[in-house]
Amino acid sequence: MLLLKQKEQCELALESCDEALWDWDTKSDILFYSTKWKKIMGYDANDEEPHALSAWLNMVDAKDMARVNEALRKHLDGNSHFFLH
């Protein structure tokens, strides 16, 4: 019950700041997407969006893939605090 309440509070905070956010749990390979992210990507808030990193990477344009893979590798190797591409 407490976890659900915290999730709802986090979602409200994200909506109020009008930012798109996604988060990847590397241990479970599950992604979280904010409502704003879903809207930008064309998903309805209730749609099933891709929940694994491989599905997310399939949305990257082929011309950007090398740069995204390099940024991801650097981040996973501990050479950056955030994965920004």
Number of individual domains: 1
**Alpha-carbon Rg, integer:** 14 Å
Which series of helices and strands comes N to C? Answer: HEEHHH
Number of strands: 2
Major sheet strand order: 1-2
Task: Provide the structure class.
Answer: mainly alpha
Number of helices: 4
CATH topology: the name is: Beta-Lactamase
Helix content: 40-55%
Report, as a whole number of angstroms, the end-to-end distance.
36 Å
CATH superfamily: PAS domain
CATH top level label: Alpha Beta
Q: What would your notes on this structure say?
A:
This protein is mainly alpha-helical. The protein has helices at residues 2-17, 35-40, 53-57, 65-76; strands spanning 22-25, 30-33. It has one domain (2-76): PAS domain (Beta-Lactamase, 2-Layer Sandwich), CATH 3.30.450.20. A two-stranded antiparallel sheet has the order 1-2. β1 (22-25) and β2 (30-33) form a beta hairpin. The longest helix has 16 residues, at 2-17. The mean pLDDT is 82.
Task: Give the tags.
85 residues, mainly alpha, Beta-Lactamase, two-stranded antiparallel sheet, 4 helices, 46% helix
Quick summary:
With 85 residues, this protein is mainly α. Helix content is 46%, strand content 9%.
Set out the fold topology.
Elements: H1 2-17, E1 22-25, E2 30-33, H2 35-40, H3 53-57, H4 65-76
Antiparallel strand pairs: 1-2
